C-alpha cells in the first residue's frame, strides 16, 4: 500500500525527469516539487483509494493451509559433533578456573582451544561423534519404521476429521428432526 509520501515522491520524480532533458530548468523543477508537497489533499484521496483496495485484497488473503509440520515428541535428536563433545568436556573446567567469565567469552576460549588442538588430539572426539551419528541413524530408521507415535498427527488430517465429525453431528440432528 503506497503511503502519502511515496505518492508525492512519484509525482515529483516525474516532473524532475521531464526537466532533466533541459538542465537549465532543473532548479525550478525541484522548487516545483516542493510546492507540490503542500497539496496534501490530492494525495490523501489517492492514498484512501489505495487503502480500500489493499484492505479488500487482504480480506481475501489467508494463511497457508496445513501449517508447519510439528515434530513428534519421540523424534531422536541430532547427535553432537566432535567440537561440541570437546566443549561439553572443557566448559566446566574453564568456568571453574575463570570465575565470573561471560558465556560468550567461554565460547570464544573453547573455539580457540578447538582450533589450536592437533588432529591427533581431536581424533577421540571425532570418533565418538561418528559413533553417536551411527546410533542416531539407527534410531531414526527405527522411529520411521514404527510410524507416527504418541498422538502426533498431520494437522490437515486433524482438520478433516473435525469437519467429518461436524457433518455427522448435523446428519444426526436432521434425522432426529425428521423422526419428530
UniProtKB/TrEMBL annotation:
Question: Which family does the similarity line name?
Answer: Belongs to the HMGB family.
| UniProt keyword terms in alphabetical order | DNA-binding, Nucleus
Which PROSITE patterns does the protein's record reference?
HMG_BOX_2
Q: Mind listing where the DNA-binding region sits, in residue ranges? A: 76-144
**Quick one: where is this thing mainly located?**
nucleus
Biased composition annotated in UniProt, kind: Basic and acidic residues: 134-164
User: InterPro entries given for it?
Assistant: HMG_box_dom (IPR009071), HMG_box_dom_sf (IPR036910), HMGB (IPR050342)
Which GO terms label this protein's molecular function in UniProt? DNA binding
Ranges of biased composition (kind: Acidic residues): 165-180
Q: Where is the HMG box domain?
A: 76-144
Q: What protein is this chain from?
A: High mobility group protein B3
Q: Does the keyword Nuclease apply?
A: no
Where does it localize? Nucleus
A Gene Ontology cellular-component term: nucleus
Stretches for region Disordered: 58-77, 134-180
Amino acid at each position: 500500500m503506497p503511503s502519502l509520501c511515496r505518492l508525492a515522491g512519484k509525482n515529483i520524480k516525474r516532473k524532475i525527469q521531464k526537466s532533466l532533458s533541459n538542465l537549465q530548468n532543473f532548479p525550478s523543477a525541484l522548487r516545483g516539487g516542493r510546492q507540490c508537497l503542500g497539496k496534501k489533499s490530492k494525495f490523501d484521496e489517492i492514498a484512501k483509494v489505495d487503502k480500500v483496495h489493499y484492505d479488500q485484497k487482504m480480506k481475501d488473503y489467508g494463511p497457508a493451509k496445513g501449517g508447519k509440520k510439528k515434530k513428534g515428541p519421540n523424534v531422536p535428536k541430532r547427535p553432537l559433533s566432535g567440537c561440541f563433545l570437546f566443549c561439553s568436556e572443557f566448559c566446566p573446567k574453564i568456568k571453574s578456573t575463570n570465575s565470573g567469565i561471560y558465556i560468550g567469552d567461554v565460547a570464544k576460549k573453547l573455539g580457540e582451544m578447538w582450533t589450536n588442538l592437533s588432529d591427533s588430539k581431536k581424533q577421540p572426539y571425532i570418533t565418538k561423534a561418528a559413533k553417536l551419528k551411527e546410533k542416531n541413524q539407527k534410531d531414526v530408521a527405527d522411529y520411521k519404521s514404527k510410524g507416527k507415535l504418541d498422538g502426533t498427527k498431520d494437522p490437515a488430517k486433524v482438520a478433516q476429521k473435525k469437519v467429518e465429525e461436524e457433518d455427522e453431528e448435523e446428519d444426526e440432528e436432521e434425522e432426529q428432526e425428521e423422526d419428530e
